[in-house]
């Protein structure tokens, strides 16, 4: 009798990911059902703006990424790169200036800094040297469409909106690893983001787009206040939200070019991010356990090995995960080609379980060839920490 009660309780717990999956479907429908993108297409709000690009090294197809910003349907803007002397990106930026003479392109060198986060130190310099009040910040591997600037700047005309951020998708999946990354990003990462938006509002930003103003950045101390913090993109959105401003997440995606040479590369990159999240949101990170449908469905079958349980749990898992992928990726983000990666959903979910478990076993993270620890919410070089 006691074992029967325990097994029923465990079967009930194993069904909890399905509740989360239904919440994902509802949150996704609410998010993508809004006609908000028409605002950018019809808006006459096009203030002069600075596109700020911190660069270190060359991403795949870097020139095409950079060139996409020179083709914007936007009346007045500048592109400012911050790059170290001798960086291999410099010849590409010089070529960009020659190929797009009508586009205002500047290149600055970073000031000397002791910041742990090199990207944030560059962004601090970029914000201070930007000519315009409105700034659009994104990572160097991002590629955009000609309507990008109009789309992301327009919501800032609304009272109360302090920042705008966007989703992103892969420019092209060339390998199985790229496909696993895409299916995981759309069906898992975005699922969590959209549920968070529905339940608690948007209190974060994604590095693929942060549109805001220099004044609003200065309200929380700007990038100088984040120079030794991990997840600076997330924190910019959080800080702006904490100042009482709305962060608008648009149902719009920019593109990134995958650079995963192997499954190990993908695993380590996602593991690094999960270790950061464990430190920044420990209870939320722990709660991810109840969103992992694959291991719980397998556990349910192991607890009660019957055709009915297997069909119920594994069938519900497969159906809901496909529905989530369709809702977010195919219907919402118009990625029709995502269908070919649907069979990779269980593969990603298995990898995600390994990454989640691994995040509790990893205390350091490797970034740009350096090992760091996170102490009191700050990045500390492991070599420096060892000497303390």
Question: Can you summarize this structure?
Answer:
The chain is built from 16 helices and 11 strands. It has helices spanning 2-14, 16-32, 37-42, 62-67, 90-99, 118-129, 148-153, 176-200, 214-219, 232-242, 263-280, 282-287, 293-303, 307-332, 345-359, 382-387, and strands at residues 49-54, 77-82, 104-108, 134-137, 142-143, 161-170, 210-213, 246-256, 364-367, 370-375, 378-381.
The unreliable regions are none
Q: Separation of termini?
A: 57 Å
> What is the CATH C-level name of the largest domain?
Alpha Beta
Residue-averaged pLDDT: 89
Strand content: 15-25%
Rounded to an integer in angstroms, the radius of gyration calculated over CA atoms is 22 Å
Q: Output the strand order for the largest sheet.
A: 3-2-1-4-7
CATH topology title of the largest domain: Spore Coat Polysaccharide Biosynthesis Protein SpsA, Chain A
SSE string, helices as H and strands as E? HHHEHEHEHEEHEHEHHEHHHHHEEEH
Q: Can you tell me the CATH architecture of the largest domain?
A: Alpha-Beta Complex
Structural class: alpha/beta
| Percent helix | 40-55%
Corresponding CATH superfamily of the largest domain = Spore Coat Polysaccharide Biosynthesis Protein SpsA, Chain A
Protein topology:
Layout: H1 2-14, H2 16-32, H3 37-42, E1 49-54, H4 62-67, E2 77-82, H5 90-99, E3 104-108, H6 118-129, E4 134-137, E5 142-143, H7 148-153, E6 161-170, H8 176-200, E7 210-213, H9 214-219, H10 232-242, E8 246-256, H11 263-280, H12 282-287, H13 293-303, H14 307-332, H15 345-359, E9 364-367, E10 370-375, E11 378-381, H16 382-387
Parallel strand pairs: 1-2, 1-4, 2-3, 6-8
Antiparallel strand pairs: 4-7, 5-8, 9-10, 10-11
Helix pairs in contact: 1-13, 2-8, 2-14, 8-14, 8-15, 11-15, 13-14
């Amino acid at each position: 009798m006691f074992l029967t009660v325990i097994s029923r309780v465990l079967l009930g717990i194993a069904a909890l990911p399905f509740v989360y999956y239904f919440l994902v479907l509802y949150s996704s429908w609410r998010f993508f059902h809004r006609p908000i993108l028409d605002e950018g297409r019809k808006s006459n709000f096009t203030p002069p703006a600075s596109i700020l690009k911190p660069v270190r090294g060359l991403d795949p197809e870097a020139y095409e990424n950079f060139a996409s910003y020179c083709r914007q349907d936007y009346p007045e803007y500048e592109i400012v790169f911050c790059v170290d002397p001798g960086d291999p990106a410099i010849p590409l930026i010089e070529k960009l200036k020659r190929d797009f003479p009508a586009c205002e392109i500047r290149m600055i060198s970073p000031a000397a800094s002791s910041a742990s986060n090199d990207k944030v130190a560059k962004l601090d310099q970029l914000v201070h040297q930007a000519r315009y009040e409105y700034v659009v910040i994104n990572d160097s591997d991002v590629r955009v469409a000609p309507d990008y600037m109009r789309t992301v700047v327009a919501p800032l005309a609304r009272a109360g909106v302090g920042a705008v951020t966007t989703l992103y998708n892969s420019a092209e999946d060339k390998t199985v690893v790229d496909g696993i990354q895409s299916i995981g990003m759309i069906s898992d990462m975005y699922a969590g983001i959209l549920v968070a938006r529905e339940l608690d509002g948007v209190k974060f930003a994604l590095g693929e787009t942060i549109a805001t103003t220099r004044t609003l950045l200065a309200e929380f101390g700007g990038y100088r206040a984040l120079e030794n913090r991990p997840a600076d993109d997330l924190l910019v959105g959080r800080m702006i939200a904490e100042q009482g401003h709305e962060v608008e997440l648009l149902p719009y995606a920019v593109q990134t070019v995958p650079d995963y040479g192997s499954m190990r590369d993908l695993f380590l990159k996602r593991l690094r991010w999960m270790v950061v999240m464990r430190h920044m949101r420990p209870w939320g990170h722990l709660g991810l356990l109840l969103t992992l449908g694959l291991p719980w469905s397998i556990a349910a079958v192991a607890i009660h090995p019957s055709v009915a349980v297997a069909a119920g749990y594994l069938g519900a898992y497969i159906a809901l995960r496909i529905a989530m992928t369709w809702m977010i990726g195919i219907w919402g983000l118009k990625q029709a080609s995502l269908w070919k990666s649907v069979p990779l959903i269980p593969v990603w979910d298995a990898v995600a379980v390994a990454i989640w478990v691994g995040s509790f076993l990893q205390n350091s993270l490797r970034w740009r060839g350096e090992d760091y620890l996170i102490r009191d919410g700050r990045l500390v070089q492991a070599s420096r920490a060892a000497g303390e």
